[in-house]
Amino acid sequence: MKRIEEAIALFLISLFSFSAAAAAAAIDRSQFPPNFLFGTATSSYQIEGAYSEGNKSLSIWDVFTRIPGKILDGSNGDVADDHYHRYLEDIELMHYLGVNSYRFSISWTRILPRGRFGQINQNGITFYNNLLDALLTKGIQPFVTLSHYDIPQELEDRYGAWLNPQIQKDFAYFADTCFKAFGNKVKYWSTVNEPNLMAKWGYMTGQNPPGRCSQPSCPSGDSKTEPYIAAHNIILCHAAAVDIYRKKYQVKQGGFIGIVMASNWLEPFTDTPVDKLATSRALSFDVPWFLDPIIYGDYPPEMLQILGSRLPKFSIEDKKKLQTKLDFIGINHYSSLYAKDCLFSPCDSETSEGNGFADRTGEKDGHSIGAKTAISNFYVVPSGMEKMILYIMERYNNTTMFITENGFAQEGSRNPSNEILKELLNDKERVEYHSAYLSSLLKAMRKGADVRGYFIWSLIDNFEWLNGYSKRFGLYHVNYNTQERTPKLSAKWYKEFLQCSAEISIKADGDVKQKLVAY
Ligand SMILES: *[C@@H]1O[C@H](CO)[C@@H](O)[C@H](O)[C@H]1NC(C)=O
Ligand SMILES: *[C@@H]1O[C@H](CO)[C@@H](O)[C@H](O)[C@H]1NC(C)=O
Ligand SMILES: *[C@@H]1O[C@H](CO)[C@@H](O)[C@H](O)[C@H]1NC(C)=O
């Protein structure tokens, strides 16, 4: 009897996923609320270049990328997309797409090259004011991140940046400076981008700057304590910035402030209770690590239990500061993985404890969880979008959300051959990816999730951190020799999606149906 029910359920699921694919083909902008934000996303270090112009100082990424062997193709963001000089051209690209919003980040080192130990740099203020004015002229709402990985190296050198509570003073001063200079033009602020990855990759695995982890993998650091100290300071930095915004600016400027979390989904590796528990722990050690303190005033119970005294405590004063909470949760969602228990059957991975005694994998019994992409742990699993949103909706009482990043990576060297270039431009996998993820997003919204916007990562190919220029996420291809931008098929698709003309769509067999439009 049970077998038959399972067979019927499987049959229904397969029918359902087939119709979901067909539905994905039909989706367009008209299915979303009229005031929904549709945009593209970038970050300062990944696109701006001009790393030493206009009295900008060096960020931790400027310094880190110069250490031999750190970046896959030995590159750095010195020039990147030269957006610093080409921002008007890039705004034209967005205007052409028809987006109503643009998510970007402010380079801390342009505004305060020496943190609070030096002057406000007028060149930096002018650059972002020009960018904001040009966006607003085109009817594009700025959605601004204060810190997207790149912070002044001076703060690292002086006191260890995120590891020192002093960072709260610097972050508060930086935030205040930005609200004051730009707040009448900006309605959406995010304090920090992906602090969960910053803490894990900067202080647990040490793969990102400042490259700290336990010896012998790193020259210095402590993977078992520092990630939690850095996270604690980041949470209090967020609270300090929100406090300043609420008290001094929000009423007058009428905007919203939130934080952006790396929010990939996890499925239990097997149906066993231990893997299900491991999945729930691994999820708690990720997004709720930051959002539970910000929204409910303390770390998730599983973290308190497993980490004990290694988890810093919020003082009564800290808890008071945390009461300012946030206005929205930014969700960067790309992929899903399986989570496997490491508590009852120990794993050999060094980071399993930091993931709640769970290991992550995309492979099971010779099959991957979804189609592979150019980024090794990123698989195409559209249903993960809906699940992640519903998880956050339920845990945080229907707080407003924005999908601040969602994107598909292509393999592509810095100088692709003409043949490869043709393939890169005909990125039907990316069109398929976004269609499917948007339709998963719609399902979550129809179940009551209060999602107000969606940003594609990224507008243009750019410096993809440790991968250098070897991975391409852009709707526009960038030729790094000439800085020429060329629309990919996905750029044309996004434009038509936004115009509701749906002239490019993916048929059920994966073929691209395309009515050519003039460019
Ligand atoms: C940068 O700062 C120095 C003083 O430290 C000043 O002389 C110079 O003119 C500044 N450069 C720009 C482009 O503003
Ligand atoms: C959840 O949100 C509702 C409506 O905004 C509010 O009335 C309620 O108090 C919230 N519950 C919690 C536990 O925060
Ligand atoms: C969440 O909030 C939105 C906007 O306030 C509302 O429309 C929706 O019904 C709420 N969903 C749930 C599940 O309460």
From TrEMBL:
**SUPFAM superfamilies reported for this sequence:** (Trans)glycosidases
Q: What processes does the entry annotate via GO biological process terms?
A: carbohydrate metabolic process
Q: Which GO terms describe its molecular function?
A: beta-D-fucosidase activity; beta-galactosidase activity; beta-glucosidase activity
The leader peptide range reads 1-24
InterPro entries per the UniProt record, alphabetical: GH (IPR017853), GH_1_N_CS (IPR033132), Glyco_hydro_1 (IPR001360), Glyco_hydro_1_AS (IPR018120)
Keywords assigned by UniProt, alphabetized? Glycosidase, Hydrolase, Signal
- Which protein, by its recorded name, is this? Beta-glucosidase 18
Q: What is the species of this protein? A: Dendrobium catenatum
**What gene name is given for the protein in this entry?**
BGLU18
